């Protein structure tokens, strides 16, 4: 069953390290078990169906799936991830929005509970899928007729199996195959003898060009991100993880930039040093959902 293949250690890393900064496009996903307290990132299906099964996942800061991590919901429900770093659960019966969090960690993730439909869907439907996604990041698909048990969904991208991190009958959170090349790719979904419609996503690779030397107070430093896999402009978001060392121009709130498009297809972010040292900037592609039709 294709989607049961776990991701290979460290193949999901897009990490660029120099003496001055760390650019994280998305942390690695690896099989190596991590202690429960290491869990930092909670992945929930955005939409679940009242009383139906769903799957969540917990990752550490390096993107490794985290077994035995405790997760609590705002309605009082608690779950613990299994050896795969995921947990199968039953969605609450009351429709509305609840919040999930990793026990002992700050931050909450919203999840919308929809009422049970009057009849089961006769076929799988896809209502939302990103036009462009990162080769090194998860992406989401929304619709109906998916399987709440993540491993029951069979997903291939250009014929290679993808890994389902979180799922519900209405939402899928998917990691692309590790060796997928940049460019347009077909996405095929099946579950419980239901097949999804033909889908396509453009997958891009991001790489960094920047001065690796330590930054000093008042020094302006430009970060250039190269986008491969499309000539269309894409939107990137930068987050400053060490605001005491440097500041993103425009402020330390997450900053967005649109790439130039064309053969080069570049995007730029600027930082200004506040004190001597190494700074940390996280940059990721913003996947914009759209209807597949």
Characteristic terms for this protein:
293 residues; Immunoglobulin-like; single chain; mainly beta
Brief account:
This protein has about 290 residues and is mostly beta strands. The protein has strands spanning about 15, 20-25, 40-45, 45-50, 55-60, 70-75, 80, 85-90, 95-100, 110-115, 125-130, 130-135, 140-145, 155, 160, 165, 170-175, 185-190, 195, 200-210, 220-230, 235-240, 245-250, 255-260, 265-275, 280-285, 290. A hairpin with a 2-residue loop joins strand 18 (about 185-190) and strand 19.
Descriptive account of the structure:
- Strands 12, 14, 15, 18, 19, 20, 21, 23 and 25 form a 9-stranded mixed β-sheet that branches. A 5-stranded mixed β-sheet has the order 1-2-26-22-24, with no helix packed on it.
- It has 293 residues and is an all-beta fold.
- β16 and β17 form a beta hairpin.
- The chain has no helices and 27 strands.
- The relative contact order is 0.17.
- The chain has a domain of 86 residues: Immunoglobulin-like, CATH 2.60.40.10.
């Amino acid at each position: 069953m294709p989607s049961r293949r776990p991701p290979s250690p460290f193949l999901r890393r897009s990490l660029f390290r120099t003496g001055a900064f760390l650019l994280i496009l998305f942390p690695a996903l690896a099989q190596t078990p991590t202690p429960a307290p290491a869990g930092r990132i909670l992945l929930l299906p955005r939409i679940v169906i009242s009383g139906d099964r769903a799957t969540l996942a917990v990752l550490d800061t390096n993107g490794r799936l985290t077994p035995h991590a405790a997760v609590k919901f705002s309605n009082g429900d608690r779950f613990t991830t299994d050896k795969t770093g995921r947990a199968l659960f039953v969605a609450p019966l009351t429709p509305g929005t609840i919040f999930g969090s990793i026990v002992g960690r700050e931050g909450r993730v919203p999840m919308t509970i929809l009422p049970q439909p009057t009849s089961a869907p006769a076929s799988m439907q896809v209502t939302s899928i990103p036009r462009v996604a990162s080769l090194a990041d998860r992406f989401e698909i929304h619709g109906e007729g998916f399987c709440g048990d993540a491993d029951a969904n069979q997903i291939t991208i250009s014929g290679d199996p993808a890994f389902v991190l979180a799922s519900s009958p209405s939402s899928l959170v998917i990691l692309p195959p590790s060796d997928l090349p940049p460019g347009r790719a077909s996405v095929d979904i099946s579950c419980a003898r239901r097949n999804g419609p033909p889908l396509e996503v453009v997958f891009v690779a991001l790489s960094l060009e920047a001065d690796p030397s330590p930054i000093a107070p008042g020094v302006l430093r430009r970060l250039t991100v190269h986008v491969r896999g499309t000539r269309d402009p894409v939107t990137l978001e930068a987050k400053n993880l060490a605001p005491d060392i440097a500041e993103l121009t425009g402020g330390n709130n997450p900053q967005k930039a649109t790439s130039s498009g064309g053969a080069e297809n570049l995007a730029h972010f600027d930082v200004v040093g506040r004190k001597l040292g190494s700074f940390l900037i996280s940059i990721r592609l913003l996947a914009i959902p759209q209807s597949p039709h």
